[in-house]
Amino acid sequence: MAQAIVQVDAFTSAAFGGNPAGVCVLDQPRDPSWMQLVAREMNVAETAFLERRSDGDFNLRWFTPTVEVDLCGHATLASAHALWEDGATTSVLRFHTRSGMLAATRRGEWIDLDFPATPDEPIDAPRGLLESLGVRARYVGRSRFDFLVEVETEADVLVVHPDFRMLADVDARGAIVTSQSRTPGVDFVSRYFAPAFGIDEDPATGSTHCCLGPFWTARTGKREFVARQLSARGGELHVAVNGTRVRLSGQAVTVLRGELLA
Q1: Confidence (pTM)
Q2: What digits encode the pLDDT tens for the residues 127-144?
Q3: From CA 178, how far away is CA 165, in angstroms rounded?
Q4: Catalytic annotation present for 121
């Protein structure tokens, strides 16, 4: 029996920008090994798998081409977009995940995600981190998932060219590089690298902003930000920090519809 699947570009208002995600609303229960094979076949940063629950919510899992992950923002945004595009009528969608309950709320062309904050703690840079990124750091921290490296300027973020083999050996999901922005209307910029999880550079990453939001709140005193991810595809997010939660807002565009025959 064929299984429908779509590909959605998240954190962008235009096709072929932002971060592509596969979205698969399961017609029947599937084994995680099958999900991993599908994610490898899709070969995008994450593929989301949703299972409808009797209470109207959804179970949601995310897989990179190589591993299952605990938290993914762009594939959650893509999932909500796909569900509403396919006729979901409720304005709030709830997802049961490995990181607890997550919610998506429709707001015109924008989707708001309610995610847990993952603030960093300052650390001494571990051996190999800065060398693999090739940067001089103003600050180094670590969140639940990632290393966070602040550099001096937006230009410094743009020119980062990691040694991905070396970075894959650093003990974390990945590394965020960030700075304040000098672009009018943008508060901070970032890039994100996670070669150990099969993603050399992620184009537009929701979960990293669960760390970046609290970080820049502590730096600036602000609680609401416009953020830009400076990958080749680019991505724009609106971020609002509220205690232990972070609201991530973005847009999405469906670019592909198909069927899995295996």
Answers
A1: 0.95
A2: 999 999 999 999 999 999
A3: 21
A4: no
